[in-house]
Amino acid sequence: MPILLERPELLRAETVHPAAYLHKISGYPLLISLYADGKCYLCELQRGTTILTAIFDKAFTFNNDRPVKLTSNSSYLFAYNGDQIWMSPLPGYWSVPSIGTGAGDYFDVTTNILSIKESVNPGQRSTLDIMVNNRSGEWDAPGSGGIDDLALGSKVILYEGYVISSVSTYQEAQSYFVDSWSYSRSPNLATFTIHCIDAWGLLEKYRFNRKVSFNYTGATTTYSVYELIEMLCQAIGGSLSYISRSSFIITFKPVIEINAGETAANLLRRLLATVPDTIRFDGNTGYVVYPQSGDQSSYLLKFPVT
After folding, report:
1. What's the rounded Cα separation, in Å, for the pair 79 and 209?
2. What class has domain 207-289?
3. What pTM did the predictor assign?
């Protein structure tokens, strides 16, 4: 039986121990345990291949001085080398969080703002830094007192406009989410800075904890590009809608392999590269747009302040 690995340079033929153990867990790809150069390699059969034309992807590696045999029950995978037993919970398939219920209470920080710095980067993380006056120490304890609604993940709405003769004219420009905050003190000045990211930033922070496959041969459920993007939006607590969309984005169901550690942002860019549609975010709600020559012009506004 040929054994083809995702990275064959990892296991040279002359270094592989003759013992190789196969194990099949119901609902999961076939596993194989190999030994080479003092390490054990647990690999899984790539979806869409068979045992006769097997391509195995490296799933896990650990140091050991001999091959390990594999077994499992309904909850755990076990590896046994003759003296020791390792156990690990069975990996779960990717499941996304349910859509959130939205924001709670609001509070206005406009009167305390010393500066705003916004960095707009289409298709990748954009940031917003809000520096406020903390001379009286009112920002010393986020989560209590007058700022008890400030927490990591809090939604921050940026308004842009102008004031003429005490009349304020402004509109909502974009929404961000609190990622962290910091303090700075110097003579006669104490500041509190709220560091925020947009939906692309949230997608960059979301990483898959295991290998996931979609639309592989024999899959019982298949997903269109639009449905996969919708799940990504739900993964950051948002939702997906559309202003316009192509027929291709709702009919094309590509075979997608997601590696452990890949970000949701990278996967979204991969999916968008397969269709003629684009996406824009309002907060963590994504809107698909199918650009057409007859579309009305739109403009990207950037607030030029630091």
Report:
1. 21
2. alpha beta
3. 0.72
